[in-house]
Specification:
About 15% of the residues lie in helices and about 30% in strands. The protein contains 3 helices and 9 strands, in the order αββββββαβββα.
Length: about 190
């Protein structure tokens, strides 16, 4: 039996009319080392401060005994679900919000290959260039301040997470509820 991600996660979504123009300088690459997210409810959960973001989510699992007749509902307090955390360091900007998988065609990165259940790096990011241009109003601005930043986009079931940061790392956190893992993460941060 094919899994949900195989059946639906690779479909090319319909694009919104205003995303037809191509920008050849911007393209997407797969992020390295990102474990597959749960197909139904990855429940992305973030812990953030001004310079760091930890993004927690549930991982894809397969129950060989599942007959397809029942649905298991999870939330960020559910126990026994394998999870991962992606830590973004040196964060300039981040967001978690729409569109969901049904409306992903309206996201500006869809035309480049961002679709549900994917994790991408945006090379030549127009958003990063826009932040750099906006900062030029600062009397001590230098474009070099923005060198080394990278733009990442992760499309979940119900939302898209994006971050512009220096780097990221990935860790599986076992079968800990996301809320508990996030609380432990916050407790480990230095003030």
């Amino acid at each position: 039996m094919a899994n949900w991600r195989t059946l639906f996660g690779k479909q090319q979504p319909k694009q919104a009319d205003d995303t037809a123009a191509e920008d050849l300088t911007e393209h997407l690459l797969d992020m390295d080392g990102i474990p597959p997210m749960a197909g139904g409810a990855p429940m992305p959960f973030i812990v953030a401060d001004e310079h760091n973001v930890s993004l927690f989510y549930y991982l894809q699992t397969f129950d060989p005994d599942w007959d397809g007749a029942t649905v298991r509902v999870v939330d960020t307090a559910s126990e026994g679900e394998p999870a991962a955390v992606i830590r973004f360091n040196g964060v300039l900007w981040h967001r978690l919000g729409p569109p969901n998988e049904e409306a992903i065609g309206a996201h500006p990165l869809c035309r480049l290959g961002l679709y549900a259940y994917t994790a991408k790096e945006v090379v030549g990011s127009k958003l990063l260039r826009r932040f750099c241009r906006a900062n030029r109003i600062h009397q001590y601005h230098s474009d070099s301040l923005f060198k080394g930043y990278r733009h990442f986009a992760i499309a979940f079931h119900d939302s898209v997470f994006e971050a512009i940061s220096r780097d990221y790392s990935v860790q599986k956190v076992g079968k800990t509820p996301l809320r508990s893992a996030a609380a432990a993460e916050l407790g480990n941060w230095k003030s």
